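So, can you check?
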Amino acid sequence: MASRVILSKENKFYKLIKKLKDKKYREKERAFLAEGFKIFELNKNPKYIILKNSMQNKFDFSSYNNKYIFEDFLFDEITSQENSQGVIFVYEYPSPNIENILGDIVILDQVQDPGNLGTIIRTLDAIGLKSLILIKGTVDVYNEKTVRSSMGSIFNLNFHYMNYDELFSFLEEKNYNIISTALDDDSVDYTQMRLKEKNAIVFGNEGNGISKKILNKSNEKVIIPIYGSAESLNVGIAVGVVMYKYIELKKL
């Protein structure tokens, strides 16, 4: 299939693609950017394929429609990578459906760093957990850095954003056991967390932790011991530590 060549910053399609770097326009267009051929290997159904002119012969997308070749200076305006492979994919948002949120879940309360979120998504995918609820105000799942650091796992999880009232209504209706990670005096060691039939494990903001609204609703609070001088662990690391112990406990 023939590719369309984009030569100018005034091109409407170029302007659309550049706007997708902004969360507001991603939500409006229901589409996001993903870079690198590895992403394509994991999801071969992009809405658009964008190739850098000087590198277009590296890949064979001859069987795909909706291919665009950007002149190098235009592509360089869009890419978020220093050593780009020369290909960007545009994917459509999946349709959110609360009914897809099944079984045990992780909840993120106002996590702000996109790299942390991508790492968390990758970790949850690695342990086989399929559902992630994000409190509104948490960084956008489709932020380019989040997409990149998820290493393709973004295609394997169900995501749903909720405010606190929506969250509490959902957890109560579905009878979830709420386990919050907190540096409180009454928190128990994470290795002793008590799992029930349906569990919601909560991790908080990098600086402020979990909101009191959620802590007050929690059935149990758990802590990862700190043996050195650091005040706390990075939230991405904390998710890995707690959730791999969760898998061990589930198997008992």
In short: The radius of gyration is 21 Å. The first helix runs from residue 12 to 19.
